Amino acid sequence: MLRQLRRIPRDSWLLVGIMLLTSCTLVYARLSGFVEAKTLLFTIQPLSAIAIAIVAYFIAAGRGDRVRHKSEKALIVGSIVAIWFVLYFMSGLLVTYVHNTLVTDFRSIALNIFAFGVGAFAIEYTRYVTMLVGGRRSVLLLGFIVAVVFSLQQMTLENISDVQTASDGIKTLVANIIPAIVSSFLLTFLAVSSGLPAMLTYRLGVVAATILPPIIPKYDWYLIGVSSVLMAIAVYIAIDRNAQGRETTRHHRSRKHPKRAYDIMLLIVMAGLVSFTTGMFSYKPSVILSNSMKPVFSRGSVVVVQKVGDTMDIQKGDIVQYKASDHLITHRVVEINLADDGSGERRFTTKGDNSPSADPIVVPKQIVGVIRAQVPYIGYPTVWLNEITR
Known about the structure:
Blueprint: H1 2-7, H2 10-32, H3 37-60, H4 70-90, H5 92-95, E1 97-99, H6 106-134, H7 139-151, H8 166-193, H9 196-211, E2 215-217, H10 221-250, H11 260-277, E3 283-287, E4 302-307, E5 319-323, E6 328-338, E7 346-351, E8 367-375, H12 380-388
Antiparallel strand pairs: 1-2, 3-4, 4-8, 5-6, 5-8, 6-7
């Protein structure tokens, strides 16, 4: 390990060190409130990224990479980003749209382009130069270090001080930290395999989808995080498969030879999906079979249920899922009282938003979990199957 670290050129270490120092300083400034958040976001952060990119430009000294078919790979990435954007935007027809708070007037658009667009361009150029200067001898180790360090620049940590409970921590992890890390690893992979055009196509495409539309789908934090991760995985698979196709053609072989990395990635994704749907994680999907909670969600929706370890965390207004005699009910908590026997155990009164009356009292052992997200309509096959088998 130490020998591999020593093989990494000093110029690469210099850029990694500058980026790490800058990222840590910005994170500290965000958390401490030392600098006004708006000034930090729209001025200091993009200017620091540009300054580091200028250093990277002089370090690169006109070096060229040996990546082939850059334009073709950039087109592949652009196609996936375009498809993702169309699906993302059209999904607003199901989940409704909300006004994009980043877009208020032309001045705000210009500020967003500078803060997010120009800043992202500078960061990705620096990432590209770091990997270019590092060479191929220690590409895996350097790539891992670069992906981790540069992911700090993609995280939004202004509200991390507001994390008080495990639920808040999971929300920050899923909606912010994991997508940033996955995206950073993908961009580092693209820097080596596809070149700067593909990197910029991906990063700036995602930025444009965020800061330019005046309206955006009303996504829950969970769906935002998951969709970002899935798009990154799709881009990786597409680029990896493209490389496999070229290798197969070059060797005139008719059968495919999937790379081990692709197989591992696919196995992890499939294992994750199976674990999620079977409830092995803290989150589990569940299909809604009635309209008792309209308009929050209706029959045929799939809700994401977070398992509850301690019912003391449940608050009035939370939507919970609990076990009735022979089925599950998903209703809102409208009142919380203590048991009359002096045990101090909580008793929950629940009611559907679209129901005329409250449910029977719910005790802690009946609680399955709290609803954290929902996707309309996709659970209808389960609804129909349930009706057929009654």
